[in-house]
Amino acid sequence: MSRRLSATDTNYQQESAGRGYFAALASARYLLLTTFKPVGSPISAPVHGLADGDRAYFRAWSRSGTVKRLRHTDAVQVAPSTRLGMYSNAPSVDATARLLTGEEASRVAGKLAGRYPARHRFLIRPRRGQIVYYELLPCDAADDQAVEDAQG
What we know:
Order of helices and strands: HEEEHEEHHEH
CATH class: Mainly Beta
Shape: globular
Number of strands: 6
Distance between the termini: 51 Å
Structural class: alpha+beta
Number of helices: 5
């Protein structure tokens, strides 16, 4: 009987690093994003997203619980899933979410609109707030990004 791999399994992370950290997410239409409450309990929700090598992107409503939890902590776990988020066929990977603004957000909005054209046309629902875009970084890359931001 084979053992199930976890996101913290060193062998799995080394294997996926050769193909890109988010390679397991590349073909997924939905991502199961797990964020954490201030007390540490996890909450998962399916989001629209796409993976591109060592980076992945997703969008969410500004008033959603996901975005509120991301204001508290940027640590997340992500895995490919179904639309309802009830099934994931790959282990989750640890990542850090970074809010995108300005030109970066516009570029990611264009990528996501290209991948989900029908959904993009119906995203205007004022009572839910605005759509915000996030970039997912591998945990070690996020640490490097924070050092670069502090330096310059």
